[in-house]
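Archive entry: two folds, one per protein. Generate the first.
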Amino acid sequence: MPKNCEWSTDLRKLVLKHHMDGDSIGTIATKVLLGRSTIHYIFKKWHQTGLVINRQDRGRKRNTTSRVDRIIHRKIISNR
């Protein structure tokens, strides 16, 4: 199931603080009122990247430049 929202960095850091204190995933989930899968996802991201913040420049890259966009826009306007 895909993610529906992104959790704040403060909440993620709180989850990691509980993890460093030795709490289990279930205990952390009840303390911060999140699902166990969400806690697991935060741990997984932290182990892979070493960070809990979102990386910038994610997603599909643009295929057209701003110049090409203007040309396309002009063609659309003229062919109404």
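Generate the second and append.
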Amino acid sequence: MFSYDDERLVQDREDLIGVLRMRFGDIAPGIIDTIYAFDEPDDMERLILVAANAPDLKTFLEELEEGSGNFKITGERFNPLGATASNGGRSE
């Protein structure tokens, strides 16, 4: 039987996968397996923030590979609008 915390962790994982799909399209099964290997709510919170702010999937995957306990989502690398803001919103 799931505890309340277990249910929340499952929902956080599904939320993370949902954010990734909305932002980056289809997600490889190996990435989903890696997400489900995390079992700490703090890790899920960090990864959701990374997924929401990383400008591309590669940046998210780099942070995913850092593992548990790392929290360093700062700087222009995590500005999802960085490229748009720097060129006035124009595609080049």
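Annotation attached to the second fold: The chain is about 60% helix and 0% strand. Residues 84-92 have pLDDT under 50 and may be disordered.
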